[in-house]
Amino acid sequence: PPLCSWRLCVRFKFSKESGGAMQRIGVIGTGSIAAVHLDGWRCMPGIELVGYYDIVPEAAARAALRYGGRV
């Protein structure tokens, strides 16, 4: 099921089909609320933060620098 908040919506699916594969996450909206989610996901095994978008390009760039991945 989707995992959503006001400025962040990511489809995150746990399934046997993944076979333990790394789950790659792209983030839309990198404001202060997103930071709470990103801090949590960064610590979860099997999660790779790969991309960021925000209407403020500098905010997306800061997230990419802090958490890895690209804008």
Number of strands: 4
Structure annotation, total helices: 2
* Overall mean pLDDT: 79
Helix fraction, binned, reads 25-40%
Net shape: globular
Strand order across the largest sheet? 1-2
Largest sheet: 2 strands, antiparallel
Residue fraction in strands: 25-35%
Structural class: alpha+beta
Query: CA-to-CA gap between the ends?
Result: 25 Å
pLDDT < 50 stretches: 1-16
Name its key features.
disordered N terminus; alpha+beta; globular; 71 residues; 2 helices; two-stranded antiparallel ribbon; two-stranded parallel sheet; single chain
Structural notes for this entry:
By secondary structure, the protein is an alpha+beta fold. Helices cover 31% and strands 30% of the residues. The protein has two helices and four strands; from the N terminus they run E-E-E-H-E-H. The chain has a two-stranded antiparallel ribbon with strand order 1-2. Strand 1 and strand 2 form a beta hairpin. The longest helix is centred in the middle third of the chain and has 11 residues. The chain is globular. It starts with a strand and ends with a helix.
